[in-house]
Amino acid sequence: MTPSARTALITGASAGIGATFARHLAADGYQLLLVARRADRLRELATQLTEQHGVRCEVFAADLTDPAAPAAILDYADQQDLDIDVLINNAGLSGKTAFAETEWEALAGEIQLMVTAPTELVRLVVPGMKERGWGRIVNLSSVAAFAPPAASLLYTGIKSYVLNVSQALNMELEPHGIHVTALCPGFTRTEFHDVMGTRDAADHLPRILWQQPEAVVVEGWAAVMKGKPVCVPGVVNKISAAAMKPLPTRLGYLAGKTFNPFKNG
């Protein structure tokens, strides 16, 4: 099967790493099903990619904090006669307030968006991939998955879940021609920090820590095509992840406590 006959489902596709994956796969001839909350941004991107690369681009506006969203997305794919051969689980966010000061609705939404929804989407697309004997799944984790725990934040725990589950899924599914990769970027030049309200703090970080989304996507896509279960893109991120892994549990806890973002408020 040629790439032009394959379809990629990308969540969080309206900007950042998701939109960059869309551009990269469209250039390779993949059909696309783009999912995000912002329908206008999706339509604009879909039109652009169809004009540039002649590929079919469908859009589906959905909020993945809604438990009904994953099934609705796959129902739409079925209605459009699209078999999902590539899944890019990219949609995500990070909480901005301490756990005890955050309403449960917001915490539940964060878990639904980055734990339950991507896991359900994998479960929904895998049977078809197994039938066809080919599939590629990229789950967006983070270099934070290797870091010490951070007080009051669900983010590191969630990204650790994504990292570990992606490896387990790859072990199970690789014999069926399906590769699963946890893509673990560090600081990336996207709208993420604007949405989270942390742009000022992010801009004070050294330039060497940052990557462009294109570099993240190129390395991540190469990794899943080669069957690598974990991809940490960029030299600085690789060094950081390697340095953090050997930390004993107690030292990791102390490091996370020392750099607690909520210790002053």
Textual characterization of the structure:
It contains 10 helices and 7 strands. It has 265 residues and is α/β, with parallel strands linked by helices. The chain has one domain: Rossmann fold, CATH 3.40.50. A 7-stranded parallel β-sheet has the order 3-2-1-4-5-6-7, with helices on both faces. The model has no long low-confidence stretch (mean pLDDT 88). Helix 4 packs parallel to helix 5. Helix 4 links the parallel strand 4 and strand 5.
Sum this structure up briefly.
Keywords: Oxidoreductase. The chain is of the alpha/beta class and 265 residues long. It has helices at 16-27, 39-53, 69-79, 104-132, 155-173, 192-196, 199-203, 213-225, 235-244, 249-258; strands at residues 7-11, 31-36, 57-61, 84-89, 135-140, 178-183, 230-231.
Write the layout of secondary structure elements.
Elements: E1 7-11, H1 16-27, E2 31-36, H2 39-53, E3 57-61, H3 69-79, E4 84-89, H4 104-132, E5 135-140, H5 155-173, E6 178-183, H6 192-196, H7 199-203, H8 213-225, E7 230-231, H9 235-244, H10 249-258
